[in-house]
Amino acid sequence: MIADELPAWSLGDAGVDPVTLPSGWPEALDRSWAFGDGLGTGVRVAIVDSGVDASHPVVAGPLERAVVVELDHDGRGTVEEDAVGDVSGHGTACAGIIRALAPGCELTSVRVLGADLTGGGDALVAGLRWAVHEGHDVVNLSLSTTKARFAEALHELTDLAYFGGCLLVASAHNMPVASWPWRFAPVLSVASHARHDSETFFHNPSPPVEFHARGIDVEVGWGGGTTIRASGNSFATPHMSAMAARVLGAHPGLRPFEVKTALRLSANNVKGGADAHGG
Amino acid sequence: MRTEVDLRAAVAAGVLSASRGRAPLLQSIADVARAIFGARASSIMLFDEARAELVFEAVSGEGEELLGRRIPKDTGIAGWVLGARDPIVVDDVAHDPRFAADFARGTGYVPQGIMAAPLLLEDRALGVLSILDRPKRASLSLVELDLLGLFAHQSAVALELFEAGRRAQAALDGDGELAVLARLAAALDGQGAEGRSASIALMAALERVLSPTD
């Protein structure tokens, strides 16, 4: 009852809005086509976060690369190789979720956050720019900035990524405040559903949040080799990054809008189309 | 922009002393937060930016002796929430590396579970609302997480009103350019009907003199 009235982004207990495709839709799309073998093999995923602890069991394998954004006094960022790992645990949590669902993908860590997850918009912009320019297929952004002065730069970067074939997967804020870049249309934006199933995701017919994925009470890897149970859109987002990696592993070269479409058409709440008529 | 806001606030302060209600408001937020979630305790820590510390401004339930205590801004789960600007729910703090176990033991009350949310206003984090030891449930519901975020946001909006009152009070007490306006507003408010009418006419004349002419 209350869930219907809350202006928050997560998927309320009231349930999922079913989406019915037009009957003239040419072909049904199921997950075996969308995901192929489900490994996401060779897909390059960047995690812009607090770093990644490659030695943590949940990460289960080496990183393609790890870099950190260093800021000078004027807020200009330079990107350097990073041997520190994860200063918080947040990035390792994201990496573990992605690796568990798309074990064949290549992971790169782009550290822009400090131990207390402070980082500032300058580091976020510089880290994201680097990840896009390096040609990653998917960039996981389990973070956002509430500072409006960074919105324009982030908007430009989301367009750059979209036209360059790089899918940005970004968390909606967990509170009813304005934040960026998840609200921009080129981004695949994610909030939480409460089902304890990492394979379940929903397309949201009422944006700005476009997808709901598992984000409540998720067991994740954390700092110092630990494991914790965590909740929030930060943990729903890597579920969708992994799903995007699966799609790109099965169908290399798809553009971001095509990956979004494939995910929409294979979401748990989307039915209909030619398939509904036996086509 | 900020000067205009302060100017309006300063004039308002002549007839409204907002800052007196600050402590009861904070206490009320802590009490209601505890009641909403049926928790053993709740607290509000405000961020003292100049000293990079979090200050316990209101406590409900366990730990009332913490009032006024200061901790470094990056301490424990509250510090993490302040930095991350994101709500958090931890049902078993003993196994969470972010938990400030030493600090908790020092207070004599070690919670098992904490949920906390930042008091956010646009790009500013005013502090942290913490809920300690809500009843154990099979699992956290999204409604609880949303409610936490929404209530924290409402609290931040209320706090901002009082911050405006505090700035206004400072202007009223000071010797700056704004103080004379605030004193005028206060004097006007204290006048009888006849004097008030004459004063308003005088100020209207002053306004005409000060207004740019075509």
What integer value in Å does the Rg of chain B equal?
Answer: 22 Å
Instruction: Summarize the amount of helix of chain A as a percent range.
Output: 25-40%
Helix count of chain B, per DSSP? 7
Protein structure class of chain A: alpha/beta
Low-confidence stretches of chain B: none
The total strand number of chain B stands at 6
- Sheet with most strands of chain B: 6 strands, antiparallel
Q: How far is the first residue's CA from the last residue's CA of chain B?
A: 25 Å
Structure report:
The complex is a heterodimer of chains A (279) and B (214). Chain A has one domain (38-277): Rossmann fold. Chain A is 27% helix and 21% strand. Chain A is built from seven helices and 13 strands. A nine-stranded mixed β-sheet of chain A has the order 4-3-5-2-6-7-8-10-9, with helices on both faces. Chain B has helices at residues 2-13, 22-37, 76-84, 101-107, 142-173, 177-190, 193-210; strands at residues 41-48, 53-61, 70-72, 88-90, 114-121, 124-132. The longest helix of chain B is centred in the last third of the chain and has 32 residues, at 142-173.
Comma- or semicolon-separated keywords:
heterodimer; A: 279 residues; alpha/beta; Rossmann fold; 9-stranded mixed sheet; two-stranded parallel sheet; 13 strands; 21% strand; disordered N terminus; B: 214 residues; alpha+beta; 6-stranded antiparallel sheet; 7 helices; elongated
